[in-house]
Amino acid sequence: MSANIQEAADAAIEPVSFVKVPALEPPTSLQQMIHDWQLIKHREGGYFKETDRSPLTMDLEKPQDGDSTDSVTVTRNQSTLIYYLLTPDSPIGKFHKNINRITHILQRGKGQYVLVYPDGQVKSFRVGFDYKKGEVSQWVVPGGVFKASFLVPNEEFDNGLLISEVVVPGFDFEDHTFMKGEDELKSLVGPERAAELAFLV
Ligand code: GUN
């Protein structure tokens, strides 16, 4: 059994060259998968496909931006499921957050996640099946926590990372926010850590 992220070993943030300077094309095997599964480019980087959206819906009270006392009722699907793929030509998922917690399940390959909590704490861990090295194959990112990811070289999946993500309630762009540039990162983690993490913004 894999550890959860609380038990995951802290990993140093040392991206390899193809993370900093992406390849021009994915390896043929990953290109074939993108084609066969009809994965499309994600705005945050990488490729994805929504493979399920619950037909059942739920009504939720959502706080209004800027005024915590005010809320609106919104309707969401009960859950969504995606495949998400990082490849050497698109090796980074840039910092973003969702108001809802997101469950991640590793399918193939290796990668590294970097989480930035609202209090500025940074947690980074590797995802893979080598549990003895502290890698994890399931991880849950809490709502309101910024998340970024990048590829870790691996032979078993031709330098790719394929995961599944489940969101409850289901994904809606209204619940999703990209980090607003390096300034927001700096305000959370300070200038030194922000310089180290800038490639993920
Ligand atoms: N559409 C664009 N991005 C996403 C995502 O991350 N999840 C889902 N389910 N749909 C999306």
TrEMBL record:
<feature type="domain" description="DUF985">
    <location>
        <begin position="31"/>
        <end position="179"/>
    </location>
</feature>
<dbReference type="InterPro" id="IPR014710">
    <property type="entry name" value="RmlC-like_jellyroll"/>
</dbReference>
<dbReference type="Pfam" id="PF06172">
    <property type="entry name" value="Cupin_5"/>
</dbReference>
<feature type="compositionally biased region" description="Basic and acidic residues">
    <location>
        <begin position="52"/>
        <end position="65"/>
    </location>
</feature>
<dbReference type="InterPro" id="IPR039935">
    <property type="entry name" value="YML079W-like"/>
</dbReference>
<dbReference type="InterPro" id="IPR011051">
    <property type="entry name" value="RmlC_Cupin_sf"/>
</dbReference>
<feature type="region of interest" description="Disordered">
    <location>
        <begin position="52"/>
        <end position="72"/>
    </location>
</feature>
<dbReference type="InterPro" id="IPR009327">
    <property type="entry name" value="Cupin_DUF985"/>
</dbReference>
<protein>
    <recommendedName>
        <fullName>DUF985 domain-containing protein</fullName>
    </recommendedName>
</protein>
